[in-house]
Amino acid sequence: MAQQVAIVHGWSDSSASFHGLRAFLNENGFEVTSIWLGDYISMDDDVRISDVAKRMNAVISGRIESGDLRPPFDLIVHSTGGLVAREWLARYYPTGENCPVKRLLMLAPANFGSRLAAAGKSLVGRVLYGWDRWFQTGAEILRGLELASPYQWDLACRDLLDPAGAGTGPYGGDKVWPFVIVGSRGYSSGLRRAVNEDGSDGTVRACAANLNCVGLTIDFTAGMTPDVRPWHPRNGDTVFPFVVLPDRDHSTIVRPLHLTDAPNASPALGNHIIRALRCASPAEYHQIGRDWAVDTEAIAALGGPDGEVSRRLAFLGDPPPASAFHQYLQTVVAVADDQGLPIDDYFLEFFAPEDQDDAEAVYFQREVLEHVHVNTSRRDMRCLFIDRSDLMSGYYPRVQDGQERVVAMSISAAPVGNNVRHFDSSEEGAPGHLIVHREDDEQRETIGAARLMRNMTHLVKIIVPRVPQAEVFKLTQ
Hints:
Blueprint lengths: L4 E4 L10 H9 L7 E4 L10 H18 L6 E6 L2 H12 L8 E7 L13 H8 L10 H7 L4 H10 L1 E2 L14 E7 L22 H4 L3 E7 L7 E4 L1 E2 L8 E4 L22 H10 L4 H20 L5 H8 L13 E10 L8 E6 L7 H10 E6 L6 E7 H8 L10 E8 L6 E3 L11 E5 L18 E8 L1 E3 L9
Parallel strand pairs: 1-2, 1-3, 3-4, 4-6, 6-10, 7-18, 11-18
Antiparallel strand pairs: 5-9, 7-8, 11-14, 12-15, 13-14, 15-17, 16-19
Helix pairs in contact: 2-3, 3-6, 11-12
């Protein structure tokens, strides 16, 4: 019996964009009649991602009851479709039991947001979609897509990470098998180039697409040395297969047949898609994860010291720019006091602890820390975008011989007022700092072993003490 596949599009898109992918699957042994194309509203301001997932569940349940859709089937999603699928799984199949989907192939999913989501309606309308949708761009869905959004944080805590205990999730083992394929080349023509960003496919950052993530709580309330508590991975030791293709942008990542849309593209995209959809066992799933990790590192190496020559050997025509080979990571930080109240006004500083003239700190803030986004609805939540390639090849070589080759972080929080401060009553900033990365972390970089990991998103909850001053309460005899 033919393997059934459903395809779900992203924000502002429709199923019409996937006829080419449908034809590609047909040429590789999938029956056209067994491929379903999903459509949903994403550009009306009243629709949330949870609304789409709820309606998606009703439609899928109806198709299964009628016999048109036979479990288990496979699901291919693009961009925002990744959040829709995850919301559906986390809400209706939180442990993965009895889930009708087996393989979840994610093409450039916005798992941890998109910088473009916070762009003005005029920019989005003009650059990407013309003038006709200025006044409704899907405000609720864009809030969920914005970098450092509370929605993404909440969703990750439901399906990927458990800060409090040992909850289970829907992925890995004999449950749902997610795969992530993302490009790292920006748009190469037209006005769309205005929204390009290094480390992204023009819309989604590679590290934001990766489903593998890390969570930490850093608690300063106990004293100068913070209590660091790693979050529990809900899916055990499962490493989700993830690969970066530097010859694909956000549009061409769904077009394995149409090389005219990406004339310099290799056939790797189609090969990865077919291998994911043909995965037959947990052992094979883990092997694909290992192989794709090797592929991603090999591709990143093409941008090394001899990268220009390597790129010309590896790609037809004009090679991708050097920026397409840099590896990035992002950290989403949420800061609150020990009473649970969010703190909006704080500053994170990164530095080398033994740096006397702050040269390393200046380099990190200017070159390694590429971008900081403050969420528009939750100013206590921020997304820090870090160029790992510059961290390894630029920051650490500047650390002088004999000094510890690490990156430290401190946090400063503004006083609440004259009567309440954060941290010690005589201090406005953190009484100490925390080592967040060591150069030799790269020698033992497995999930959970290092705190800043390549191509990944890190969720970090920082808790600081709220300290009332002596005048707030007194006893006199």
